[in-house]
Amino acid sequence: MERAQLPEAHARCRVGGVAVRRNRGFGGANAMNPRRAAIVAQARDFIRVGRIDDALAAVEPLIKLDPRNPELLSLAARAHNAAARHPQAIALATRSLAALEHPEALMARGDSLRAEGRTDEAIADLRRAIALAPTMLDLKVALVATLEEAGRTELARAELQPVLEQIARGREPLPQRVAYEHAKLLVREGAWGEAVATIDGTIDATIDGIITHAASAPAPGSIPFLMLMFLRAKALDRAGDYAGAWESARRAQDSRRVQFDPAAHARETDELIAFWTRDRVRALESSGNTDPTAVFITGMPRSGTSLVDQIIDAHPQAAGVGELDSVERWAEAACAHRREAISSRDYSRVAREYLAQVRRLSPSASRIVNKALGNDRILGHIALLFPATRIVHITRDPRDVAVSCVMGAFGSTRYPWTTRPEWVAAAWRDSQRLMAHWTSVLDVPILEVSYEKLAREGDGQIRRIIDFVGLSWDERVHGFHASRRTVRTLSYDQVSRPLYTASIGRWEHYAPQLAGVDWPEATT
Length: 524
Prior knowledge:
Blueprint: E1 4-5, E2 12-15, E3 18-21, H1 34-48, H2 52-65, H3 70-82, H4 86-99, E4 100-101, H5 103-115, H6 119-132, H7 137-149, H8 153-169, H9 176-188, H10 192-203, H11 223-239, H12 242-256, H13 262-275, H14 278-283, E5 294-298, H15 305-313, E6 318-320, H16 326-335, H17 344-361, E7 367-370, H18 379-385, E8 390-395, H19 398-406, H20 421-441, E9 446-450, H21 451-457, H22 459-468, H23 492-495, H24 511-514
Helix pairs in contact: 1-2, 1-3, 2-3, 3-4, 3-5, 4-5, 5-6, 6-7, 7-8, 7-9, 8-9, 9-10, 9-11, 10-11, 11-12, 13-20, 19-20
């Protein structure tokens, strides 16, 4: 049956002649009673403020009553997308599109395809959405962002330039998302001063870094403010203004008002070590699953996990699924009750479900790599789920890790310690203690990889990784940086280039800012 086409009845306001999405309806084909409409509006508000579980709790009962409703399915897709549950988002958006060809569902699916590294499919969805709503600014910005992250800078610039010109003709200030993507392209092009000026014009920053906000400027702590300030820090870092870069990043991090208790984190690590003794590991029954498909990467954020993932993914018999957190979420839910009560049957079921999930994403791969950042906390469960798995643990100088974390926009709720260098040092120390413990009590093999050795030695370390995961050598692995797969992490700059050593010792530029921190020793 032919899919319905949405009538041109979207509510819009205009910025320099470009329509900006406000609250697009799904037209008469999707009328709702007032109570359901109020629930949908509330779910949209929940998504906007990051209350994803509340949004899904509101919309999922409605989907059970009306499982083909395109607006409900699209809204659920947006919620899963915001929670980085991209396979679920893609499936829901596809169901929505089967009922109604609509730009919101296309954008939700396109953004998740982009996050999964399926760049060409994402671009196709966004172009379809733009064809339906050619004046909708969000769609054009999303297309520019997708092209830029894929390294297709000239195409991104070609898409953005008409938008910039149209806004300029209307004598309007740049909308925040447009300014952000414009500044990202300027950084790529080496125009760091112009990038900073673009950002400052948006956040209304004075030359000495004191932020004075206009009515249209992003509020401190908001996502637009954070994105702009971290990009400002990146531009200043590239320009060699390290003090200015750190100040921009610090202001962004301070505006988040994140709380972290290093002592509590150390106690939690102690509890994990105390629970997962060698005797308990031997006493607990595993799933018995002998499939070697699942491979896991562990390591601190910004330690090289994306690089190892991209290297393995470049092998024709392997694939990466990014930071898929389904095992982590199951482990958290299971441990909220009683870890000792998890049975072999539970492990067997979860292992089967996980392998089915990743095979749907990469049906032809014999090794499928998961680099979720919480893997190091759940390796006991991973070893019991997948007795034939292999673990790659990558480490990096904690000072370089700290600089990269503080200068980037990590999820402060899940990883609050990434916001201050002294907290990074504490978390790095706990992670190393825990990994040493896993190595001593688990039967699954764990390969230790040094980021510095990988960057300096290249081929030898790459071959070591490929051999460890049980694959024969293939020369195509050397071209990992040329993969058309897009990496949606702070590491996407790094993995789109051949191995380089410029990031080793980057912390020395920030030595004054790192002084006074009790840094653990690292072998590099």
